[in-house]
Amino acid sequence: MEKQLLEGEMMEQEIRIKYPIAQPTLTELERRNLMEAFDSGWISSKGQYISKFEEEFSAYIGAEYGISCTNGTAALHLALLALGIGKGDEVIIPNITFVSPANAVLYTGAKPTLVDVDEQYWGLDPNRIEEKITSHTKAIIVVHLYGHPCDMDPIRKVAENNGLFIIEDCAEAHGAEYKGKKVGTFGDVSIFSFYANKIITTGEGGMLITNEEHIDSISRVLRDHGMSPNKKYWHDIIGYNYRMTNLQAAIGLAQLRNINSYIKAKRRIAKYYSRNLTKAFSIQPEMQWAKNIYWLTTILNFKLSNYSSRDNFINELLKNGVEARPVFYPLNQMPPYRNSGKFPNSVRISQIGLNLPSSPSLTERDLEAICYTLVEITE
Ligand SMILES: *Cc1c(COP(=O)(O)O)cnc(C)c1O
Question: In this predicted structure, what is the pLDDT of residue 317?
Fold first, then answer.
């Protein structure tokens, strides 16, 4: 019997990954900005690039305020704290997501309440939120999964009817649109991540985006040790050190110059997959009200039926130099996030879903080779 290999073991066997999942595009401009920041001596969290990056990124999203920080998870933590969420509170989150929102809720002492996702586009299902609301529920975190926006109108209605805050997790959706407007301004506050494989990167990094002046000011205090802005070394609240460095912001500013070309490339890649894969696969769609920026083109493989067949499929792809990743596991299946309830859509999407190589640098020839491998291994 063939031994099943894990991703890491495969790497040790020096199987060359020819088509990685998502690599950043770093140009001469990033290098120049970074060296300028370096040469200025402002290598820590003061320096001109930080406020520039905050201003330009928030303007790109179409919001008043941007507060940079160390990473997307820290941004989520700050967003929850800024809204006053803590012990005894409950926060609605989707059952399929990267783990950050669940962890951030737990950092505050609040409890994540899991809700199943829509079977078509895999975002938080607006019709399943209300049944999970209790007198302790304070907020909804929506996650625009893999670049596809959530259906914000009905979600906003539920939030309004029940007096709940909305936090948008846009870590995978820089530039995605809901009804013609960029995500990031449909709630009280939103967060972005600039991890290396996201749409734009600062190495590690994150940002809160908001139109609310008080959220802006309190998150600035919280990210800077809780220090009073008017009285140095005076602390009225407990804070954190969640500051971004000038070096990171310098890279981010350069990345922002090219964000539209990255989005265009991601959409071109998704289109290629959707035209060239067989009926055994279906790609995450783009609903008529949405602009999906296809951070990672993600497919369901209908020939798969469970986690082990999926893992075998991923290993077969890897042997051919194609790196694919499994869709996130449903949170309710993992020990720290166990929740009651049934989540049929999450389970199915997670069992047969995978992310495909989606780097902006992929050429038609690369994509042709990847599709060929996918189809061949499936048959
Ligand atoms: C990447 C990501 C984050 C945060 O990522 P960091 O690595 O902390 O910057 C949060 N939510 C989602 C959905 C993500 O994909």
Answer: 96
How far is Cα 194 from Cα 182, in angstroms, rounded to an integer?
17
> 170 CA to middle of ligand 1, Å?
8
- The amino acid that residue 249 corresponds to is A
Q: How many Å apart are CA 149 and CA 5, to the nearest integer?
A: 35
Do residues 105 and 93 touch, judged by C-beta distance below 8 A? yes
Burial of 311 (0-12, 13-18, 19+ CB in 10 A): middle
Asked whether the CA dihedral 82, 85, 139, 105 is positive or negative, the reply is positive
Structure tokens at 227: 């220090």
Phi first, then psi: what are they for 265, rounded to 5°? -65, -45
Closest CA to 371 of 273, 296, 254: 273
At 15-31, the pLDDT tens digits run 689 999 999 999 999 99
pLDDT (mean) for 216-244: 97
Distance CA 147, CA 144 (A): 6
State whether the beta carbon of 171 lies less than 6 angstroms from ligand 1: yes
Closest residue by Cα to atom 2, ligand 1, is: 171
Distance 30 CA to ligand 1 centre (A): 22
Residues 202 and 44: their CA atoms lie apart, in Å, by: 14
**Is 136:345 a contact under the CB 8 Å cutoff?**
no
169 lines ligand 1 (CB under 6 A): yes
Ligand 1 atom, smallest distance to 76 CA = 10
Ligand 1 pocket residue status of 248, Cβ below 6 Å: no
The verdict on the CB of residue 195 being under 6 Å from ligand 1 is yes
d(CA 71, CA 283): 29
Residue type, 72: G
Convert the pLDDT of each residue in 239-273 to its tens digit: 999 999 999 999 999 999 999 999 999 999 999 99
Q: What is the DSSP letter of 129?
A: T
